[in-house]
Every structure is written in C-alpha cells, then in structure tokens.
Amino acid sequence: MIEISHVNKWYSPSFQVLTDCTTSVTKGEVVVVCGPSGSGKSTLIKCVNALEPFQSGDISVDGTKVNDPKTDLPKLRSRVGMVFQHFELFPHLKIIDNLCLAQQKVLDRSRDKAMAKGMQLLERVGLKEQAQKYPANLSGGQQQRVAIARALAMDPIVMLFDEPTSALDPEMVSEVLDVMVDLAHEGMTMMVVTHEMGFARKVANRVIFMDRGEIVEDAAKEDFFGKPRSDRAQKFLSKILSH
Amino acid sequence: MFANLDFDVIRRALPYLFFEGMTFTLTLTALAALGGLVFGTALALMRLSGFKILGRVAGVYVDFMRSLPLVLVIFWFYFLVPYIGQWVTGASRPISVGAFASSLITFIMFEAAYFSEIMRAGIQSISRGQPAAASALGLTYAQTMRYVVLPQAFRNMLPVLITQTIVLFQDTSLVYVLSITDFLGAASKVAQRDGRLVEMYLFAAVVYFTISCIASFGVRRLQARIAIIR
To answer: Which of A195, B77, B139, B179 shows the smallest number of beta carbons within 10 Å?
Structure first.
C-alpha cells in the first residue's frame, strides 16, 4: 500500500533530516513509528502524502508515485487520511461542517449525503451531540476524535497518524486510542507515529524505530519488544518502559 | 460671536445634506471598502504566493500607493484617466469618466494598498497547520484559501478592517477637489450660498464625529466578541 524506498531529505548539505529510509506498509497492516524527538518520524510520515518534499528516493501510495510532478496530489491526498498532533480542526466551522467541507468540495458529494456520512462517523466516535458546536467548545480528546472522523469521512484507503495523543491531557489519551484500536481491528491500513507503546503492543503488526533520520529497526512487534537488535532501540525502550 | 448664529439654516438644508450628500458619501465608502477588500486580498495573496515576480509587483504597488497623499492621487487620477483610457482603447478623444466613477476607482486602488497589508497580516496569523490539514484532505490551493484560510483571516482582522473603513469614510470628504457633492461638499455649498460657514462646518464636523464614534464603539464590542469565540 505504501512503498518508501531510499528517501533522503535535507535542508542543507550539513543538515540531513532523513537518511536512506526504506520501508513499506501493506494493506491492512498497522505500523507504529517511534523514536526520540527530532529523529524524523513526523517528517517521514508527512512525506507520505507530500506535505513535506524530499530530495531523493521514491514514495508510492497504492501504486501512485507521490514525488512525481505529474501526480494529482489533491486527489491522492483525498484518499490518504491524516490526523495531526494539534488536531487542526477548522475553528470557523461547526463540527459537522468540518466533516462535510472536503466531502462536498473534493468528492463532490451532495450536502445531504455528506451530512449523513458525517453524522454516522460522529456517532461512531461518540460525538453525535456535538455536531452543531464549534471546535473551541470541545475538549482536546473530543477534537482529536472529530479529526479522526473528518479523515474517515473521505473513505481513505490508508490512515496516517502524526503523534495523535502527544498534545492531549493524560486523561484524554485513552478515548482517542480506543477509536484508533477499533479502527485497527476493522482492518484499516495505518501508519502511526506515537510514543504510546501500549497501543503498539495491542494492535501493531510492525514497529519502526527511527533515530537521527535513519530507520534503525524495522521489525515485527514481538521481535521489537522481545529483543531489539540495536543498542539505540534497547536504550530507547528501557527509558520509556521503565516508568 | 455665537450671538448671531442661525442654526435654522441646518434644518432647512437637512434633506439636501443627507439625501444628496450623505447618500453619496456612504455609497462611495461602501463600494470603495468592498472593492478595496477584494483587490487588496488579491494583492495580499500575490505577495504571499511564493512567486517572486508576482510578490514584487504587488509590493511595489503597495509601497507606491502608500507613499502618495490621497488628495494628489484623486486629483491626478481624475485628470489622467481620460487620457489613459484614450491611450488604452485607441480612441480619438480622451474618454469621459464621470467624477463618481473616477473617485470610486481611485479609492478602490488606494484602499487596496492598505487592505492588502491588513489581509496579509491576517493570513500570516493563521497557523501553518491549517492549510496543511486542508491539503491533507485533498483541497486544492485555491480551495484551501477560499474555504479555510481567508474566512479565518477575514474574521480575525474584521475589527481592523472596519477601523480602516472608518478612516476611509472620513477620507471620502477629499473628493471636494473634484467639486463633487458628497456630505461635506453639500454642507460647503449651502454654507457659501447662505453665508453660514460656521454653522454648516460645525454641523458637518458633528455628523462625521458622531458616525465615526458609533462605528468605533461597535468595533470595540465586536473585538470583545471575537476574543470570546477564539
């Protein structure tokens, strides 16, 4: 579904952000990307839907090359759902209109159809009653659940999550993770940048560990948590699992 | 000095002052603000577009307009436009442009320079995550601007835009250089005809002051409301 091969990105010759990153995500797979901050995880996931450009290498999604100038990027992005660290709901639109905007403008769905789809997804994330409110009136956890519903409204073939729980108060993390776990169980293809190792243990098929712009470890979940091969991954794991 | 003032001259002139003068002033203000906002937003988008040449053109235009006194622009524009029109259309005589059309175009062009700076600040105040989220949903650049960025920029900047419009409302009185009957022009005509300069100019000042004051008060209340929404 997602093929990343030999991707390099740098801001200047001395400032390399991604170094020769190669990995893939197959259909129905849940891949968790972790690593210390500044290791390039978020940059890598943003390269997948071309929100970040890169200098060399190739990324393709469902057979379409992301870095080909001839690719219809808006069309490609409409099929790739993305959830951001800071939610990025549109504050001037009601919750339901946040869900309808792209459905109507990008997929040309009728207002009625978009509304029906939107309400169905809001019900699924448990926020049907909030449809007529504005984002500012919702808690962080609720906003992030709306953001997931907004991405799902486009019927994506794959979902990207960029640290979806990092900006949340601790007591709101689980309500967002619950939605993501359900999604994984339904067979959604997911690439998730997160520090939530509990989530990784529960639903990930594979774990990718990044450090200083490189993919250091790319292993099945059992192998990664059982005995990571690299020193750096061992150290990272012992640090975040020791509490 | 105030002993022999005749304030009844104002009452007699009221219909003329408001139906002729104020109607013109308000129409010009509204149309110029609207046109200036549209044109100014386009300039702001040009400057932020990332195309160097477009940005430079808009930047030079804004700096040029802001470096000239408005009276001069009105004056020159009125006398130049017929000749520019002649040159553009290749007509044999200077084309005739009415005083209203001429002053409206001048104000739109002049205000656009100021509105563009306001809209530019407004667009820059939107966090980069917003356009990123919009593109991630598949919206094109134009759709992102139209449905996500500009509505927020406009709303955040509404108090400043209205304040600029209040300044514009007062500036429209400068059309007197074209002998147009705006509110001040109408007051001035009555003043000279009846020899009642003090009364008429005093009254004109009170009217401009009252309208601007009420509008400013409205802006302050609006600001408070927007602060709550955010």
So the answer is: B179
> Scanning the structure block, which residue is given the tokens 């690299």?
A230
b/e per residue, B166-202, with b = 16+ CB within 10 A? bebbebbbbbeebebbbbbbbbbbbbeeeebeebbeb
Helices (H), B125-196: 129-136, 141-143, 150-171, 183-194
* Interface contact B136-A77, CB threshold 8 A: yes
Which two tokens mark A118?
């939107």
| Rounded distance between C-alpha atoms, residue B107 and residue A190, angstroms | 55
Q: How many Å from the N-terminal Cα to the C-terminal Cα in chain A? A: 36
Query: What is the rounded distance in angstroms from the CA atom of residue A139 to the CA atom of residue A161?
Result: 19
Decide if A144 contacts A176 (C-beta within 8 A).
Answer: yes
CB B230 within 8 A of CB A136: yes
Chain segment B190-224, per-residue pLDDT in tens? 888 888 888 899 999 999 999 999 999 999 898 88
Closest residue in chain B to residue A133, using alpha carbons only: B229
Q: Any chain A CB within 8 A of the CB of B195?
A: no
What pTM did the predictor assign?
A: 0.87
> What is the rounded CA–CA span in Å between residue A122 and residue A99?
9
A63 CB within 8 Å of a chain B CB = no
**Is B138–A86 a contact, with Cβ atoms under 8 angstroms apart?**
no
Helix and strand numbers (H, E) in chain B are 10, 0
Q: To which H or E segment does residue A64 belong?
A: strand A64-65
SS (H, E, C) B50-103: CCHHHHHHHHHHHHHHHCCCHHHHHHHHHHHHHHHHHHHHCCCCCCCCCHHHHH
Integer Cα distance of A86 and B128 in angstroms = 11
Nearest-10 Cα torsion for A70, A190, A21, A9? 50
- Confidence class for position B37, pLDDT limits 50, 70, 90: very high
